[in-house]
Write a structure and sequence with these properties.
alpha+beta, globular, about 425 residues, 9 helices, 10-stranded mixed β-sheet, 14 strands
């Protein structure tokens, strides 16, 4: 390996721990790069460059310590895993392009409840009926969310209103000055990958409930009480097992702004405007000892004319399904910039006459970077240099070759087709 060559560019990184912030991922990578032989030429060139800077320019620098320059092309949602775009050196100048590219997500929506954050990390605001829900009913409702649509961002988002971020109003228990405006986004594809009947999955509603004041303030914005009008009985009480995502911390482990990246000497050219888990949890459901859940799943996933046995259906839970527990659906979607998956889950719940919260999210692709194809493993970058250095060189060279083939003003893959 040539240790005198300056290595720069953009690569995709796989983050599999939803408790690790995008900023922390960059800190870890930066530490590995700072002490490596591979990036020693870059650091040497940066020192020489700074020596030639004027006194005023040197004084303007917040971070006097020279480190490998890193940035990311959009933070991951606080409970998401998957692809994180990382720029190195001059590659950080290209990160803005990744705000305009399409992204592919796999998400799980859990029906029957709403929270202030639109996901399982929030506080419970309301419950609604869900026993009437079927895969067919949810699939029919998805049509409303395909193509160009108008979408209202969540209250817990980093968007600003009168100079203040929306999540700051929410955390302070204050009403926002006016209604959150809908924004145009496009859903290029949206499908149900798997229907999970009640009792055939590990997802549960949050245990923590918002107080009455919080509910009142939030309902003025979300109008959740309308979802329960005309209902004579509440949804059945459920003896809920602890949710593996929730028990890692009731607070949203990553701040909406993903901490102050400037403080760690990292250039973020693309602070994500969307707040936009599987922690790859598709296989997280346990093997079943009963056949009822397997039979239910087989019925839901069997195509016309096809019969699946309980064994082929891969039973998913240690107990049979319970009709009193809420169903869930695994969705796959390719969307444009500014799309909030949490808002989709929330709005879909309303559309089917219930409520919905996001209980799992994975970004499987962003622009040309896709899980399992051309992204690096976060864990590998925390290992010895001889493990990750050849991989980094390979992907950065591949990116540079691809950029050399593109016209200068062409953004990265805006319309990459979704592959199931």
């Amino acid at each position: 390996m040539n240790t005198t060559k300056i290595v720069e560019g953009v690569f995709g990184e796989t983050v599999l721990e939803h408790s690790v912030s995008s900023a922390q991922v960059l800190r870890d990578i930066q530490q590995s790069f700072n002490r490596s032989k591979l990036f020693a030429p870059w650091l040497k060139a940066e020192r020489t460059k700074r020596k030639d800077e004027g006194k005023r320019q040197r004084q303007r620098r917040r971070d006097k310590h020279i480190q490998v320059k890193l940035g990311h092309g959009g933070t991951l949602d606080p409970m998401a895993t998957g692809v994180l775009i990382v720029g190195v050196g001059k590659g950080t100048k290209h990160l803005q392009n990744f705000l305009n590219c399409t992204k592919t997500y796999e998400a799980t929506v859990l029906f029957g409840a709403a929270t202030d954050t639109y996901d399982v990390l929030g506080k419970l605001l309301n419950k609604a009926p869900y026993t009437h829900l079927t895969r067919e009913k949810v699939e029919a409702a998805l049509d409303k969310f395909r193509g160009p649509i108008k979408q209202k961002p969540p209250l817990y988002s980093a968007l600003r209103m009168d100079g203040k971020r929306l999540y700051e109003y929410a955390r302070e228990g204050k009403e926002i000055p006016r209604n959150i405006q809908e924004r145009p986004v496009t859903t290029e594809s949206l499908e149900i990958r798997e229907w999970l009947p009640g009792g055939c999955h590990p997802y549960t509603w949050p245990n923590e409930e918002a107080n009455e004041e919080q509910k009142t303030i939030t309902d003025k914005i979300l109008h959740l009480s309308a979802a329960s009008e005309g209902v004579n009985e509440d949804p059945p009480d459920i003896d809920e097992p602890s949710n593996p995502i929730i028990t890692k911390g009731r607070k949203r482990r990553r701040s909406i702004e993903d901490e102050s990246d400037a403080e760690i000497g990292i250039t973020i050219a693309a602070k994500r405007q969307e707040i936009s888990p599987i922690a790859l949890m598709s296989g997280a459901r346990q093997e079943s000892e009963g056949s009822n859940c397997a039979t239910a799943l087989a019925a839901e996933t069997t195509t016309p004319g096809e019969i699946k046995s309980p064994v082929e259906a891969q039973p998913s839970l240690a107990t049979p399904p319970s009709p009193g527990e809420p169903p869930a659906a695994k969705l796959s979607m390719t969307v444009t910039s500014g799309f909030y998956v949490r808002s989709l889950c929330h709005d879909l719940g309303h559309e089917v006459g219930s409520l919905g919260i996001m209980s799992e999210l994975v970004r499987t692709r962003q622009a040309e970077f896709e899980l399992g194809r051309n992204v690096l493993e976060y864990e590998d970058l925390r290992k010895a240099e001889d493990v990750w250095a050849p991989q980094v060189v390979r992907v950065l060279e591949g990116w540079r070759e691809k950029m050399a083939e593109k016209p200068e003003d062409e953004p990265p893959n805006q319309t990459v087709p979704h592959e199931s």
